[in-house]
Design brief:
Blueprint: H1 3-15, E1 19-32, E2 35-48, E3 52-56, H2 63-70, E4 78-83, E5 86-87, H3 93-103, E6 104-108, H4 119-128, H5 134-147, H6 163-174, E7 181-185, H7 193-208, E8 213-217, H8 221-224, E9 229-234, E10 237-243, H9 247-251
Parallel strand pairs: 3-8, 3-9, 6-7, 7-8
Antiparallel strand pairs: 1-2, 1-4, 4-5, 9-10
Helix pairs in contact: 4-5, 4-6, 5-6, 6-7
Bound molecules: adenosine-5'-diphosphate and magnesium ion (MG).
Magnesium ion binds next to helix 2.
Length: 258
């Protein structure tokens, strides 16, 4: 195919990527006694399958609230949230828990690894709840640790690893049940900038090589630029939407240079 035709084909394909996450006119109002706190005020956000989106905005702007709802940890006060074409607003707690376990992987600022378990055991744990046989759990956890370059740290506990290594274990764990969507709330917030950039390279790989849809909250402008698209929240509304400047260079086929 000629270069031009190829590019046109690619962009047509991008246009037909289906939405895996849709927020339509989403409101979240917390009630504290007599006071109503509107954390989200009519958000519209569509995320394509395989897209990498960063959510930025000042503290209190509603970023975590939005993430919690995309992650089926909470439901909106008004509006629609479709995850893979299913509206989560009317699901029961047990339906939400099931979707969380199968479709979504979480990465947190504090890593949230279990301190008494080894790296391998931390990754095997989420698979227990999906009834995967022990031998398969172990094999899969080993493969995931190798993928994040921690094949030689399988039996280390979190305190025996650096922050960057712990976050890579957490990245591997987020993939335990092979979810379609990875949600990361400030994944580099506890890391120095060099280690944070290294962790981003692994997140980019999940997006580019494994086709995972990634939604990441960050305060850090430099980190946000790795994403394909940046959405800026303020006072519960999206005030800006733009492309990440660094996505093509750093994320697309970028090689680690360790
Ligand atoms: N559980 C809650 N109860 C009451 N108010 C809340 C709760 N969670 C968040 N808020 C309020 O909602 C707004 C948005 O919070 P949040 O989504 O945590 O913002 P961000 O993650 O951008 O810092 C803030 O004003 C916050 O105080
Ligand atoms: Mg937050």
């Amino acid at each position: 195919m000629a270069k031009k035709a190829k590019a046109a084909h690619k962009s047509a394909k991008a246009k037909h990527r289906k939405h895996i996450i849709e927020l339509e006119e989403v409101w979240k109002i917390y009630t504290m006694g007599d006071v109503e706190v509107p954390a989200l005020r009519g958000i519209h956000l569509h995320i394509h399958e395989g897209e990498f989106v960063a959510i930025m905005g000042p503290s209190g702007s509603g970023k975590s609230t939005a993430m919690n709802m995309v992650g089926c940890l909470d439901i909106p006060t008004r509006g629609v949230i479709n995850l893979d074409s299913k509206d989560i607003a009317h699901m029961t707690e047990s339906e939400l828990a099931q979707i969380r376990g199968q479709k979504i992987g979480f990465i947190f600022q504090q890593f949230n690894l279990i301190p008494t378990l080894t790296a391998l055991e931390n990754i095997m744990l989420p698979m227990v709840f999906q009834n995967i046989p022990r031998e398969d759990r172990k094999k899969r956890a080993e493969d995931l640790l190798r993928m994040v370059d921690l094949g030689d740290r399988m039996h280390h506990k979190p305190t025996e690893m650096s922050g960057g290594q712990q976050q890579r274990v957490a990245i591997a764990r987020s993939l335990a049940n092979d979810p379609d969507v990875i949600l990361a709330d400030e994944p580099t917030g506890n890391l120095d900038s060099k280690t944070g950039t290294n962790v981003m390279e692994f997140l980019c790989r999940l997006n580019q090589e494994k086709g995972k849809t990634i939604v990441m909250v960050t305060h850090d402008e430099h980190i946000a630029e790795f994403a394909e698209r940046i959405e800026v929240l303020k006072d519960g509304v999206i005030i800006q939407s733009r492309k990440g400047k660094n996505h093509a260079g750093a994320c697309k086929g970028g090689k680690k240079n360790e």
